[in-house]
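Weekly structure sync, notes
Attendees: PL, DS, HV (note-taker this week)

Item 1: DNA polymerase V
DS walked through the input record. Source organism listed as Halopseudomonas bauzanensis. Sequence as pasted into the shared doc:
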Amino acid sequence: MFIYSNPVARNMNTAIILGPLGQSSTELPFYSYRVPAGFPSPAQDHMEQALSLDELLDIHAPHMYLVRAIGSSMIQAGIFDGDILVVSRGRTAAHNDIVIAAVNGETCVKRLSKQGESVVLLSENTKFPPRYIMEGDELMIWGVVVASLRRHAVHG
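Item 1 (cont.): predicted structure, written out as tokens:
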């Protein structure tokens, strides 16, 4: 965990921690057939193998947890309001990683930038300014975002 420190708070709540991610033994059929954006018709003879979401998303519980993204500050990174983020606590955050961070106790999802001696949390939307971590700010990196999930249809 990366830590910095300062008592000035900003409203940056852009992530809600949902909880730890458990292993799944569910396997789904994986089709080698590439689906065009038109009308798909994958046939049984195109099935390549069974694939688990754990394998597909490279999930290694218990070092993984889920977060729901809030707002539009990361849309240019493909993270939209309501998306579920898969976060790894086992990976060390590096320059340019998308991270779950807490700045002075306020959680957020941002791109981590190390500019010389400075640490900056960047939004992926030009409407949101960068958040420079100042001396005395408390910055805790809670994990690195490794995948995102989005529902395209909601069933009643």
